[in-house]
Design a protein that fits this description.
By secondary structure, the chain is an alpha/beta fold. It has eleven helices and six strands. The protein has two domains: 4-15 and 103-231, HAD superfamily/HAD-like (Rossmann fold), CATH 3.40.50.1000; 17-100, Up-down Bundle (Four Helix Bundle (Hemerythrin (Met), subunit A)), CATH 1.20.120. It is 50% helix and 12% strand.
Length: 232
């Protein structure tokens, strides 16, 4: 009996690539006003390089995208000679984070969440740092777990164990929906959960990997896919 539906967020309920590009652009524009040396020194690639450096120095921050973002901004500001780097980094992060949560939901997302919420416990399991309150979806979720809270990222077994522990239900009661064959589908399968692959671009399934319980190309197909698993 299915009782819990969990969702990945980025690239499952909205496209994240364009959002991150815009968030970086707005942050760099803010820097141009408040810390111009930063935006003159670092572009989008430079920001990625700072992030990689932070992750090399502090590997645990790979699981906490907010703290790693603040740390990389502060590192860049310090290298540019700013004495108030910590305060500037916090303010710049707020500009970035506000834009990072300004997402355009995939068609059908809100309707599907509302419909499923009438019959199932609905949770979010994300490696990202989306703030569901800022996104405007927090009222449609019963629980939210991200990698910063859990201390590991999907597909690590502990991530899915945290969801099982939170609900007190067995894995057979879960359907996890996500876009990533490894992080979402393989991770959920290893935990004993059912899974639905969100595949909007009609990508080929990785050779040699067990396929998801169901596959959808858009969220309007989700209720039917859930019903097929529920009735199986």
């Amino acid at each position: 009996m299915i009782k819990v539906i969990t969702f990945d967020l980025d690239d499952t309920l909205w496209d994240i690539g364009t959002v991150i590009t815009k968030a970086n652009t707005l942050m760099l524009a803010w820097m141009q006003q408040h810390a111009p040396k930063f935006s003159q020194t670092y572009d989008h690639h430079g920001i990625d390089a700072l992030r990689d450096e932070i992750w090399q120095q502090q590997p645990q921050l790979k699981h906490d995208l907010s703290q790693s973002r603040i740390a990389l901004i502060q590192l860049g500001l310090e290298r540019c000679g700013y004495r108030s780097a910590a305060n500037l980094a916090q303010a710049a992060f707020e500009v970035y984070f506000s834009a990072r949560n300004d997402v355009l939901l995939f068609d059908g997302a809100q309707q599907q969440l509302q419909a499923l919420g009438k019959h199932y416990t609905v949770g979010a399991l994300t490696n990202g740092n989306a703030d569901l309150q800022r996104v405007g979806l927090d009222h449609l979720f019963d629980f939210y777990l991200n990698s910063a809270q859990v201390g590991v990222s999907k597909p690590h077994p502990k991530f899915f164990e945290a969801a099982l522990r939170h609900t007190g239900l067995p894995p057979q009661a879960f359907i996890h929906i996500g876009d990533h064959p490894q992080h979402d589908i393989a991770g959920a399968q290893a935990a004993g959960m059912h899974s639905i692959w969100m595949n909007p671009n009609n990508a080929l399934w990785p050779a040699g990997q067990a396929s998801a319980s169901q596959e959808i190309q858009n969220l309007h197909q989700l209720s039917d896919a859930v019903a097929k698993i529920h009735d199986h």
